[in-house]
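In the current project phase, the collection of sequences with tokenised folds has grown. A sample record is quoted in full directly below:
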Amino acid sequence: MKESITIKNLGPLRDISIDELRPLTVLIGASGSGKSMLMKVISLMRYLYKKANVRAYLANSGIRRSPFKVRLDSVLHDELRYYILKEGVEIIYTVTADSGRSYVVSIANKKLQLPKTIDDHDLIFTKEAWISETRNVIPMWKNNPANSKGWLGFFFHETLADFEAAAANERHIGMRFINADMTISLVNGTRRFMLNIAGTDEPIELRFASSGMQTAAPLSTVAQYYARSFSFKDAKRRSVLNYLYDSDRLSNFHPQIELSDIRSIINMHVEEPELCLDPSAQIRLVAELADTTLNHAQNEISLTFATHSPYIVNALNLFICKRQDGSTLIPHEKLAVYRLANGNLINLMSTDEQGRPIVDTSDLSAPMENIYTEYLSLIGE
């Protein structure tokens, strides 16, 4: 399966084209360049395509009157509602199945178009996960029951819901990148999150930990949950079978393919994985995150993240570099890296003089070079 997307005239995104979203897709750029906006649009289009797949599965199985009629304004949240419902915006998301057949989800002139049919053999079932940059609020939020009626925006509450699901299923979260691990327990009906930090005598509550630990723990918890415990069987049942039972239409249901045979993918979208971490910890976090989700997960997972960190992007070269035994942390074919600037994308994937794949990070060193140049001018050299 191959995913591609084009976007025109959407807020800061003037003319964006990605030929292929890879299992690990990284976006870097200046503040306000549109990284999070692009990632939110990718997540939205994947969600809409999921709805099209569920609708097609029911139709192909004899259920002609589907409950999954999607109105564009009903799926737009926060800033997406403001930007997408403008004249001149055009978004085209294309999935090319392994069969070679292509299916398109498009938004143009405030109108949504979904594929009318999808062949049974091309069906996929996805779970869209969003890890918000405001995840540092979660430790304090979970400690105050009064917050249950508060609202911090759609994407924060998507993150919070995933964290709560993860906390209900996971008991131990490893975080080697900060030399710590977290235990989750239920005490008098309340979940406790205790960090065990190497070199300290006693565990501490997550809400009292450093800012880096408070932002990293929700990310690691959700990632390890999706890698180890998330059940697509339950998710498919909620999306399809419960509707059939509730509407008493099970007798009309004659599937040509079993739900369990439909390819299932978790799409994780992470805002700024590096938040509040020192450069070395940033690199170790992303290495651990990629290894957990791409190499050692019981589910198929794709990982897309937006970052400001040149340390992380430079370290991607270590991840794709072949070691003496011929192995890599991430095969370069699974990696895409883009820099956003002036409303456009620059593909940073390249090759060195020996033809080896590399991430071209030459532009990312400009701030340090400018500092050094200014320093030399100040001292008169």
Residues 2-135+231-378 form one domain. The longest helix spans residues 35-60. The two ends are 56 Å apart (CA to CA). The chain has one domain: 2-135+231-378.
